[in-house]
Amino acid sequence: MSQRDGFAGGFLAGAIFGSVVGGVVGAIVATRREELIDEEEIQQLASRPPETKKSSNSRRTMKLSDTESMETARRSLEDKIAQLNATIDEVRQQLGNVNGTPSPSSSERTSL
User: Fold this and answer.
1) What was the pLDDT predicted at 99?
2) Residue pLDDT, tens place only, 74-105
3) Containing H/E element for 63?
4) How far is 112 from 104, CA to CA, in rounded Å?
5) What's the rounded Cα separation, in Å, for the pair 30 and 80?
6) For residue 78, what pLDDT is reported?
7) What is the DSSP letter of 100?
8) Residues with Cβ < 8 Å from 96, sequence gap 6 or more?
C-alpha cells in the first residue's frame, strides 16, 4: 500500500527532474553544434576559390532584396490598415447620423 501512495509524487518529481536535465543537455548540445557549424562554414569559405566567394556575395544581396521586399510589404500593409481605419470612421459617422446622434470624431475618441 505504501508504494501506491508515493507513486504520483515520485512520478511528478521524476518528470520535472527529467525535463530540467533534458533541457540543460539540449541547450549545451545545441550551442556546441552551432559553434561547430560556424567553424565549418569559416573553413569552407577560406578554402573556396574566388569564383565561389562571389556567389556568397550574391546571397548577401539576395538577403538584402528580401529585406527590402519585406519592408515594402510592411509599408503596403500599413497603408491598407490606414485606409480601413478611415473607412471605419466614415461608417461610424454615417451610422451615428442615421441614429440621430452624431458619433464622436477620431480626435475625441483618442482623448477618452
Assistant:
1) 67
2) 999 999 999 999 999 999 888 887 766 655 55
3) helix 50-99
4) 10
5) 41
6) 94
7) T
8) 102, 103
